[in-house]
Amino acid sequence: MKRVDAGGFRIICVILIITGTGLVSTALYTIAGTPETAVFHAPRAAEGVLQILAAAAGLVALKETGRAGTCQIAGILMLAVAFITAACDIFTGQAAAFIAAGTAVTLTEAVLYYRMSKKLMSSRFWDGIKAAEMESIPEGTGKWEERTDPGPVESSYVISSSGREEGCFARVEVMEPERFLREYRRLTGRRLNGDDLRSVKHCSAGILGESVAGTLTSPPVRGIRNKGLSCGFYMDRDVLIFADYSGMSSSILAELNSVMPLEKETPGQVLFEFLEYIVEDDFMYLAEYEKRLDILEDNMTDDALDVPKDFDGFVSETRKELRSLTGYYKLLREVADVLEEAFTQMEDNRSRQLFASLSDKAGRLYGDAADIAEYAMQIRDIYQSKISIRQNKVMQILTIVTTVFMPLTLITGWYGMNFHNMPELGSRYGYLIVTLVSIAVIAAEFIIFKIKKWF
Fold first, then answer.
1. If DSSP codes are grouped into helix, strand and coil, which group holds residue 190?
2. What CA–CA distance (Å, rounded) separates 231 from 247?
3. How far is the C-alpha of 337 from the C-alpha of 361, rounded, in Å?
4. Which residue has the higher pLDDT, 304 or 19?
5. 250 touches 244 (CB < 8 A)
6. How far is CA 31 from the centre of its chain?
7. Is 0.85 topped by the overall pTM?
8. Complete DSSP assignment for 266-318
9. Rounded to whole angstroms, how far apart are CA atoms 21 and 59?
10. Per-residue pLDDT tens for 44-82?
């Protein structure tokens, strides 16, 4: 959400001070000249005072978030007083053009003031929460930002690595899916087709004899990777092959190889480095996500009406993103478990330990993402409870007001019948008696309300 222009709001406040001072001065001068019409010019003076007070509240609100709600109330009052002032000007015989121009100016000021104060409150609420980037992420992260569109694979990316026996070389290769399907059409009893690689939507892995085949995906994550990974893979003792339409796999392998040459790594170790790279910054991302939710909870004031209308939408979007991440981490853990089992069968203890640690890491990521998703739901529940409390308070006030005026309505209705034989109609002190009785009834009601602790 874009922040409101504080400079523009400050200008509106300055204009209100100037016009308010002018209205008060004009009204006082007119009242001094024609005291008999003072009652009709008083609203203009009140309007000027209200504009000055609203401007002062607006300048304070630029530094104190809690004052933004006061500004909105002041904007609504300025709208109401503008119409009252226009009606009084009509009674005093002011020119229609003067009335129209003055009313248009005051209404425009009030509308702009109200709208900008509302945006000010909303933007302050979202400070540090809905920013496009996370400013607190340390430098050096977000490595995938440069690979938002790497383009298709034009040629294979091959890394030769030492195999288990001297003179035997293993390969790590990225293939075009069509070539992969031609060369590995049948994998130990499983026949592949193009749809297996074109519609990769989740992580999976299966043991095929002494080899493993599966798919790898990673969802886009704001601030870390703008584009997700989607590819297939095949691995045995001597070869690791990625089948990728996007070229993302080739880019990741190239970066891994530039940081730490992979020539001495086995296919299993290269696959571990590949998967570790994908989730390398996710713990930090989830920590920042939790921090954003902490700020969200802190920004929720005691007055539930101060929470912007798009709060529910933000929480819903957060839950969807975290649900996507929890599903991804769960499947990634299953893939790591399958690979751990495969390397146990291959008697490759080093690779087995690596994927056991990856499985544990994916499990912890899954738990953290699930906890944060639950935290988001708790914050929404807090918001809903605040709304309910606010509504209950409003209904309580309305009930008290209705109860206070109910006996007064009965009294006025009873004595509004005007029958000739009603003794109070001719009483000299009837009006005073009814007034005192009404005051006594109101006092008694407030005493009862206080004893019952209804307010």
1. strand
2. 9
3. 12
4. 19
5. yes
6. 52
7. no
8. -HHHHHHHHHHHHTTTHHHHHHHHHHHHHHHHHH--SSGGGS-TTHHHHHHHH
9. 16
10. 888 888 888 888 888 887 776 555 567 777 887 888 888
